[in-house]
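During the reporting period, our protein records have gained a structure token line. One record among many is quoted in full directly below:
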Amino acid sequence: MSRATLYSNGRLVTGDQERPSAAAMVVTGDRIGYVGDDATARAHAGADAVELDLAGRTVLPGFVDGHAHVVMAGEAQLRAHLTDAADLAEIQRRVAAWAEDNPGAPRVLGRGWLFDAVPDGTPTRQMLDAVVPDRPVYLDANDYHSVWVNTAALAELGVTRDTPDPAGGRIVRDADGEPTGHLEETAAIGIVWPFLAETNSDADRDRALDTAIRAYLSSGVTTAVDMALDEHNLAAMVRAERDGRLDLRIVGHWLIHPQGDHAEQIERAAELARTHHSERLRVTGVKFIVDGVIDGCTATMLKPYADGGNADPIWGYDRLAPAVAAADAAGLQVALHAIGDGAVRIALDALENAARVNGPRPRRHRIEHLEYVDPTDVSRLSELGVTASMQPVHADPAIRDNWAAMLGDERAERGFAWPEMTAAGARLAFGTDAPTAPHPPLPNMYIASTRRSALDPELPALQPHLAVPARAAFGHATADSAWACRAEESVGRLRAGLLADFVVLDRDPFDPAALLNARVLRTVVAGRTVHRTP
């Protein structure tokens, strides 16, 4: 029997309603044995326990990132970073610098550009040709719903003026009908991403996954819900688990593409759910991308954008409803990307139809993002038992100008209305959607509890009345996110019998002024320290 470890003299914020705070905790093996006062903890641990004095530091449950793209987050760490590039000249400088620093790379890769930084919000291949004319360039937008490429990339993709737009996507073209180098939605996801995936090796994906694992653990995330699993990425996770490298718990949703037979894809997801259900790697459901994003005017709205346009859904109700019903009948969790209020309504209608068709059964379906929801649909989340899975980092005031301009009216004042969800009785789970946003959870908590910017803290709060109390925000990022991925009996709280996944911080995380500077001193997964900051 392994010796117990006593964590004493701390400030434990447990996330457990029965005992919300404590001073000590005992860990035996991979489980929590006791949470409570110091004296009782010592008696429970025994005389031969290893003691770690927390010196008054704060201990929290390990964060559960409710919406992530794990391998992609690792890949993003290895590419040119463009999110804080303020204009085209800076984007070009960074792309050229990455190309120079990686002379042997067959392609120049970057991520995170914002529409605000591009002249007229219209990226073109010529802008990239000007700095890298000889190698293909691929730049994912910050929201990962479009890709900006140069002429060489279009050539190797085989995209020409005669290439048709895929269903749910667009190859942007100039006045002469030539591709501009901007590919939106399924043109990015269905053309560019599969091509790049085939050019990557298993070693490339293993490196990206290892990079992501280190990044998540060092920031205090112990579980991540991956929202776009495919064969390549899942295989990398399986290899990591087999080799003992998977210190991060991953719960996966299989991405269902609008092209092809949805029944075959759902059956594949069900097969994987039966096969992969360990404590470290579990396939739990499927993911549908119902619409796009507000920044690119590809999200589906009930009323037009400021310019009078709108966007059709990627999955209309007539196609989505039977697919969701089939996934629900197979016992899979359904996650629906829906950002615009039109797409949210379609998603809710499809989930309501599944409940009607399949009858009563245990369900934990969820809608992802919900950046703008029509007031009449908020109550339906609770009525249907649907989790609102949202990402405070997407509400950072530093990146909201274009978002608000696209809506152009009072709708922008109700964006990211987290308190409305909980007030209506819905479960709210927080994540980051990394790599569309930074992966560390503490800035996520700062934005959630203040509505201020983690990227530029000097900016004033934006819609401060929509902030959530700090303790509630932490709960949405731990216990609620664990519940939303069917893991509440394992992680998300500090409670006897649960897995010993927790983090130690160097300061009070409930002080907004200190939160952005707080450091993760220790991350523990299954009782073992997997990250430590001296």
